[in-house]
Design goal:
The complex is a heterodimer. By secondary structure, chain A is of the alpha/beta class. Chain A is built from 9 helices and 10 strands. In chain A, helix 3 runs parallel beside helix 5 and helix 5 runs parallel beside helix 6. The mean pLDDT of chain A is 93. Helices cover 85% and strands 0% of the residues of chain B. Chain B is built from 9 helices and no strands. Chain B has a single domain, classed as MetI-like (MetI-like fold, Orthogonal Bundle). Chain B is elongated. Bound molecules: adenosine-5'-triphosphate and magnesium ion. The site of adenosine-5'-triphosphate has 11 residues of chain A, from strand 2 and helix 1. Magnesium ion binds next to helix 1 of chain A.
C-alpha cells in the first residue's frame, strides 16, 4: 500500500526523520508509539506529503508521491487523515463537513463531461443534482454508522470532543480511502470520551481498513495493531507484532519507554 | 430666532424648486457608490489577501505578490480625491473610454477600499486556525478551493465589524465625488444653498443626513454581530 524508502526530513539543520524505510501493506493496522519529539507526527504527515520529505521516496500505488511533480491532491483523496484537534470545518454543518470534499471533487472530475452532455442533451451522464444526492445519502449512512444521525444539521461548535472526532472519522471514510492516518486521535479528548472514539476506530479496523495510528493508547496498540513501531530520535528502532513488542522488547530505549507508560 | 426663520424659508423654497429631487438623487448616488464600492472592495480585498498569504515557492505567486504590493501602496498612499481626478481626467481619457462620473466613482471607491480591506482580510485569514486549511488539503482539495470554501468565509465572519466600519468611511468619503461632477448628498445640498446663498440650513440638514445614515448602518452591524454570536452559541 505505502512503501517508505530512505525517508529523511530536516527542518533547517535539525534532522527529524533519519533515513526511514518501512512498508505498510493492505489491511495492516500499524501503530506508531514513541517519546515526544521523536518524529511520529512528522513521519505520519510525510506519508501524505502534508510535510514534504527532504529526501527519499513515498511509494503509493506504484507512484512516488514525494516527487513534487505528481498531483498530490489526486493521491490525498485516497489517504484519509484524522487529526488530534479534529479540524472539522467550523463554517459547515456536520453533514456538509462529510459531503464537501466528495461533492467538490466529483463535480470537478465530471465538469467537462457534464458540460458536453448538456449541449448534446445526453442524459446518461450523472448530473450535479445526482452527485449531491448520492453524497448526501452516503453521508447520512456514515452518520448512522458513527451513531450521530441526529447531529446532521448542527455546527461543530455544538459537539463534544468525542462527537467531533467521530464526525472527522466519518468525513475521512466518505472519501473511500485506501488507508487512514491517525495522529493521536484521542489525545485532545476528555477521558470519558476516549472510549467511544477508540471503539469506532476498532470497528473501522475490523472492516479491513488499512490504518496507521500514532497513539499513546497501549491497549489499542495491543488489541488492534498488527504491527507496532517504536520511534526514537527520528528512527524506527523497533517494528514487531504487538505480542512480541510488549512481552520481550529488545531496545533499551523501548524498555525504558514501556516501563513509564505501562 | 427670526433670522433663522428667514433662512428656513429660503431652504424650504429651494427644496420645493427641485432641491428635493436633487437630494434624492444625491442620496441614491451616495449609497450606490458606497455599496457597490464596498462589494468590489471585498472581492478585490479577498483576492489580494489570498495572494499575499499564499506560499511563495514559485515565481508566479512572487510576481503577483509584488503587483499587489504596488497596488495597495498606491491606493493607500494617495488621497481619494487624487485617485478620482486621475481616473476621471487622466486614465480613462488616455485609455480612450468614456466613463460617466458616477461609474468612475464606483470603480475608484471599489479599488480604493479593496486596498484597505486587503490588509484586514489578511489579518482575518491569519486568524483562522491553520487546522482548517490542513483538513481541506488532507482531503485532496486544492489550496485555492480550501481557501474559498473554508478559510475565507470564516475570515470574513471574523472581520465583519471592520467591514462595517469600512462601509461607514466609504459613505463619508462620498462627499468628495463632486470633484468629478457626480451628484452626491454634499453636491445636492450645496445646490440648494447656492440658489439663494443661504447655506446654514442646507448644510445643517446635510450633516443630519450623514449622521442618520451612519447610525442606521452601525445599528445594522450590531444586530448582525449579535445574531452571529447567537448562532455561535446555539450551533
Ligand atoms: N515545522 C517545524 N519546524 C521546525 N521543527 C519542527 C517542525 N515540526 C516539528 N519540528 C520538530 O521535529 C521534531 C519532531 O516533531 P514531531 O511533531 O514529529 O514529534 P512527535 O513524535 O509527534 O511528538 P509528540 O508526541 O509531542 O506529538 C521535534 O523536535 C519538533 O520540534
Ligand atoms: Mg505529534
Amino acid at each position: 500500500m505505502i512503501d517508505v524508502i530512505n525517508l529523511t526530513k530536516r527542518y533547517g539543520k535539525l534532522t527529524v526523520l533519519d533515513d526511514i524505510s518501512v512498508s505498510i501493506k493492505k489491511g495492516e493496522k500499524v501503530v506508531v508509539i514513541g517519546p515526544s519529539g521523536s518524529g511520529k507526527s512528522t513521519f505520519l504527515r510525510c506519508l501524505n506529503c502534508m510535510e514534504d520529505p527532504s529526501g527519499g521516496q513515498i511509494i503509493f500505488k506504484g507512484e512516488n508521491i514525494a516527487d513534487m511533480k505528481v498531483d498530490i491532491n489526486k493521491h490525498r483523496r485516497h489517504i484519509g487523515m484524522v487529526f488530534q484537534q479534529f479540524n472539522l470545518f467550523n463554517n459547515k454543518t456536520v453533514l456538509q463537513n462529510i459531503m464537501l470534499a466528495p461533492v467538490h471533487l466529483q463535480l470537478k472530475e465530471t465538469r467537462k463531461a457534464r458540460i458536453k452532455a448538456f449541449f448534446n442533451k445526453d442524459s446518461s451522464i450523472i448530473t450535479k443534482k445526482e452527485i449531491i444526492e448520492n453524497a448526501r445519502q452516503n453521508a447520512l449512512r456514515l452518520l448512522e454508522r458513527v451513531g450521530l444521525s441526529e447531529k446532521a444539521d448542527q455546527y461543530p461548535s455544538s459537539l463534544s470532543g468525542g462527537q467531533k472526532q467521530r464526525i472527522a472519522i466519518a468525513r475521512s471514510l466518505a472519501m473511500n480511502p485506501d488507508v487512514i492516518l491517525f495522529d493521536e486521535p484521542t489525545s485532545a479528548l476528555d477521558p470519558e470520551m476516549v472510549g467511544e472514539v477508540l471503539q469506532l476506530m476498532k470497528e473501522v479496523a475490523d472492516d479491513g481498513m488499512t490504518m496507521v495510528v500514532v497513539t499513546h493508547e497501549m491497549g489499542f496498540a495491543r488489541e488492534v495493531g498488527s504491527r507496532v513501531l517504536f520511534m526514537d530520535g527520528g528512527k524506527i528502532v523497533e517494528d514487531k507484532p504487538p505480542h512480541e513488542f510488549f512481552t520481550n522488547p529488545e531496545n533499551p530505549r523501548l524498555k525504558e519507554f514501556l516501563s513509564k507508560v505501562l | 430666532m427670526g433670522k433663522f426663520n428667514v433662512k428656513w424659508e429660503a431652504f424650504a423654497d429651494s427644496w420645493r424648486e427641485g432641491g428635493d429631487a436633487r437630494v434624492i438623487e444625491g442620496l441614491k448616488n451616495t449609497l450606490t457608490i458606497a455599496i457597490i464600492g464596498l462589494v468590489i472592495g471585498i472581492v478585490i480585498g479577498v483576492i489580494i489577501a489570498v495572494v499575499r498569504v499564499m506560499p511563495k515557492y514559485k515565481l508566479l505567486p512572487k510576481i503577483l505578490d509584488k503587483i499587489c504590493y504596488i497596488y495597495t501602496s498606491f491606493f493607500r498612499g494617495t488621497p481619494m480625491v487624487v485617485q478620482l481626478l486621475v481616473g476621471y481626467y487622466v486614465l480613462f481619457p488616455l485609455m480612450g473610454i468614456t466613463v460617466s462620473s458616477l461609474v468612475t466613482c464606483i470603480i475608484i471607491f471599489g479599488l480604493n477600499s479593496g486596498a484597505y480591506l486587503s490588509e484586514t482580510m489578511r489579518a482575518g485569514i491569519n486568524s483562522v486556525d491553520s487546522g482548517q486549511m490542513e483538513a481541506g488539503r488532507a482531503l485532496g482539495l486544492s489550496y485555492g478551493a480550501t481557501m474559498i470554501k473554508i478559510v475565507v468565509p470564516q475570515a470574513i465572519k471574523n472581520i465583519l465589524p471592520t467591514i462595517g466600519n469600512e462601509f461607514i468611511s466609504l459613505i463619508k468619503e462620498t462627499s468628495v465625488v463632486s470633484f468629478v461632477g457626480a451628484v452626491d448628498l454634499y453636491n445636492a445640498f450645496r445646490y440648494i444653498g447656492s440658489n439663494n446663498y443661504e447655506f446654514m440650513v442646507p448644510y445643517l440638514i446635510m450633516a443630519m443626513f450623514y449622521i442618520v445614515i451612519v447610525l442606521i448602518i452601525s445599528l445594522g452591524i450590531k444586530l448582525m454581530e449579535r445574531s452571529l454570536r447567537k448562532s455561535d452559541r446555539r450551533n
